[in-house]
From TrEMBL:
Keyword Transmembrane: no
GO cellular component terms, semicolon-separated: cytoplasm
Domain of life: Bacteria
This enzyme's EC code(s): 2.7.7.87
Limits of the YrdC-like domain: 14-200
Example GO molecular function: L-threonylcarbamoyladenylate synthase
Name of the protein this chain belongs to: L-threonylcarbamoyladenylate synthase
Organism: Schaedlerella arabinosiphila
Main localization, broad class: cytoplasm
Protein keywords: ATP-binding, Cytoplasm, Nucleotide-binding, Nucleotidyltransferase, Transferase, tRNA processing
GO process annotations (BP): regulation of translational fidelity; tRNA processing
Reactions catalysed according to its record: L-threonine + hydrogencarbonate + ATP = L-threonylcarbamoyladenylate + diphosphate + H2O
Amino acid sequence: KTIIKKIDANKIDMRFILEAGSILKKGGLVAFPTETVYGLGANALDEEAAKKTYAAKGRPSDNPLIIHIADVQALEEIAVNIPAEVEDLAEHFWPGPLTLILEKSPVVPYGTTGGLDTVAVRMPSNLVARELILASGGYVSAPSANISGRPSPTTAEHVRQDLEGKIPMILDGGSVEIGLESTILDMTVSPPMILRPGAITLDMLEEVIGDVSVDQTILGNESDIPPKAPGMKYRHYAPKAKLVIVEGNIREETLAIRQLAYEAAREGRKIGIIASGETVDFYTHGLVKNIGSRENEKTIAKNLYAILREFDEEEVDEIYSESFSRRGMGRAIMNRLEKAAGHLRISAAAVVKRQRFH
Ligand code: TXA
Ligand code: MG
């Protein structure tokens, strides 16, 4: 039986935090809110707790976990040979949605790092998360609190859908702020390399530490080169329906998707459409969802996973999505959308042209 405790971040009930902290100390699992997505917490220094995490998520155990800390001193316990830039990064972006890859210290078990000699560390800003980390001894490993292969949870209800009955407690702190997982920056290479794009963008990082590179497997086409973050190789965030990204300018995209939805409706297929505030009224067939205005990428980021889950519940056969700008946080949005689509995309112009010849 899973206990769900509602917590108001502005008025945190410490009884719930202490109860959750004691579950973690005893080697159990607790799901909790962070500013990015909900995490499935465990004691990061306990190898057995890591095993439980992998079992609950159905996740391969070669996929390492991120250790969440609540103060910078904790970093020195779990990492060694910490490069000088880390201090600047921590000052600018912690607490916040930035995960750093560093050499691990011997106290971190290989069960937590998936056998690697490096460790991923992040200091979340969410107040419930911070209190929980402090109440549990200071080191909480937390993957996203979803079943492996489903979209990451952005509400406690999403966590319940995936993990009810499998974990003793969920702390419900309401909707998350950001909605996409943290930026992962590998500090063991020079220049540092982004392994997963997130709310802390390339430009923001370069402003603080200068040159930063980007793992080439993050964007663009399917490639044979394995990504550097083990977790990025899995077809994550996958909705049950086939998801296709339609690419072109906005006009072409809306015309193409409208046409595809019309054809599908005539053939009796149930279609979902990921539309933007600017285009949502243009569609005539299919189940249309407004992911937010193209002017506001933060809203798009926040709605993406919830919309994918809604389409799952409504059991659509296919989803067509408009494509979005890759600028700033758009890089993270398109990265997640492309992974959800398994890199399926079609040219809007080609669809529109085909129609003209009919
Ligand atoms: O925003 C987030 O980071 C959320 C919240 C809960 O904090 N957590 C999260 O964890 O997204 P997870 O387990 O879903 O993703 C962790 C990613 C995986 O892709 C994993 O392969 C990568 O981090 N990772 C962890 N340790 C690593 C390491 N030592 N080297 C390279 N990649 C690593
Ligand atoms: Mg995940």
